[in-house]
Write a structure and sequence with these properties.
Helices cover about 30% and strands about 20% of the residues. The protein is α/β, with parallel strands linked by helices. Helix 5 links the parallel strand 8 and strand 9. Helix 9 runs antiparallel to helix 10.
């Protein structure tokens, strides 16, 4: 039985990632409310607290991937790289939390198991895994849309005698791949980041690919002193650009159409964007994400690049056999992902040609072969968007549960809001 309500707060925030910390600052420091943050982990960081897998780093440039509400905080912190790694991002978010004295109102190691609204009292009651009940007038969910790890239900996983890990719940002390035979399932943005790093020390890395994916080089590098000084000096202009752009970055989507140029001119522009690196690539033409023919110019360009990078033609064709248009799914960026398949200790398994049938005590078995492994890495993503909210077991007005309302999936108004 839940314990009696210990205290009623003005607001409860669930999650101590980037969004949760900002909500705490906004509600407590700017609006003067009594706020309590409930966080399942033992530290701040949200997705960056959990995601510590090899190669994990942001795919937004560091001078964009930070709080912009305080010029003082912006200018006091110095990023070291164009695309910061998970360690640096955690150092940054801890810096902000300490600067604003936020941790005193965060309860770490507290997992929420239910959230129930009382219509008559206009109060939410939140129950924790430990059985404690906490009440608040306002409930803010800052759990993130990519925080509930998805481990696929593959028969035999419980029989595997080696070690397995999910990238979204990576051990804080890391995993030693040295001399091990590693199998990695998944080639989304996480797998694309992890594969090159794992391959550096593993005896052999076998990548199990269900869906081939596009990726553009990140061209990550240390930031120059000149760049850092320029960003600090132009805080106001940078903030305006970010708030004025479609994706929250300080670079605009080009106003030119791919159809205005010849194929040779298109390739020259894509060449330039490829060498510059990062998500700027998708802004080469304004119609890449809205016009099929324009999109095909970008898609075909990247496929040609893959075929040019990967030396083994059969492997290259598997990697370039992409069934969707560029940027119609999340567009990853990478450091030497396709180049990794040129290593002697890396191989690719096409799961559409030979699906996984089971996990055995010694490895992964597909329809046509068995692959002996010491470690399995699940880079299989998350129960995205709705998953983290459904795990809160939310009950709203008239005893209606969120799981019932979303039984057939959520419905939104104009793609923006939902009841």
């Amino acid at each position: 039985m839940p314990k009696p309500v210990a205290k009623t707060h003005d607001a409860i925030v669930i999650g101590a990632g980037f969004a949760g910390l900002y909500q705490l600052h906004l509600l407590r420091d700017r609006l003067g409310l009594d706020v309590q943050v409930l966080e399942a982990g033992s530290g701040v960081g949200g997705t960056w607290y959990w995601n510590r897998y090899p190669g994990a780093r942001c795919d937004s440039e560091s001078h964009n991937y930070c709080y912009m509400f305080s010029e003082e905080i912006y200018k006091q912190w110095t990023w070291s790289e164009r695309y910061p790694g998970h360690d640096e991002i955690r150092r940054y978010i801890n810096f902000v939390a300490d600067k604003l004295d936020l941790k005193r109102d965060i309860r770490f190691g507290t997992r929420v198991v239910s959230s129930t609204y009382d219509d008559k009292a206009n109060i939410w009651t939140i129950t924790t895994e430990a059985g404690e009940s906490i009440s608040a007038r306002y409930l803010i969910t800052a759990v993130g849309c990519l925080s509930t790890a998805n481990v696929p239900n593959i028969p035999g996983l419980e029989t595997f005698t080696g070690r397995w890990e999910h990238t979204g719940r990576w051990p804080h002390d890391g995993v030693d791949f040295n001399g091990r035979r590693v199998g990695m399932i998944g080639t989304g943005s996480t797998g694309i980041q992890a594969a090159p790093v794992i391959a550096e020390t593993a005896k052999h890395l076998t990548v199990f690919q269900r869906t081939a994916n596009y990726s553009v080089p990140a061209r990550n590098a240390p930031l120059t002193t000149e760049f850092k000084e320029t960003m600090r000096a132009n805080y106001a202009a940078l903030k305006h650009k970010m708030h004025s752009s479609a994706g929250g970055h300080d670079y605009p989507i080009s106003d030119r159409s791919a159809h205005e140029f010849t194929p040779d001119q298109q390739r020259a522009m894509y060449d330039k964007a490829w060498e510059f690196g990062g998500l700027h690539f998708r802004g080469t033409f304004r119609d890449v994400v809205i016009d099929r023919a324009a999109n095909e110019t970008a898609s075909d360009y990247i496929k040609a690049r893959i075929r040019g990078i990967v030396k083994d033609k059969a492997t290259a064709e598997k990697l370039a056999d992409i069934d969707h248009g560029y940027s119609t799914k999340r567009p990853p960026i990478d450091t030497d992902y396709f180049e990794t398949y040129n290593r002697d200790n890396v191989s690719l398994v096409d799961l559409r040609a030979e699906p996984i049938t089971e996990i055995t005590p010694t490895g992964i078995k597909t329809k046509s072969a068995e692959y002996p492994l010491d470690i399995i890495v699940f880079a299989t993503g998350y129960d995205a968007m709705t998953g983290p909210l459904l795990k809160l077991n939310i009950t709203g007005r008239d005893g209606m549960t969120l799981s019932d309302v979303w039984k057939a999936g959520p419905k939104s108004y104009l793609g923006l809001q939902m009841a």
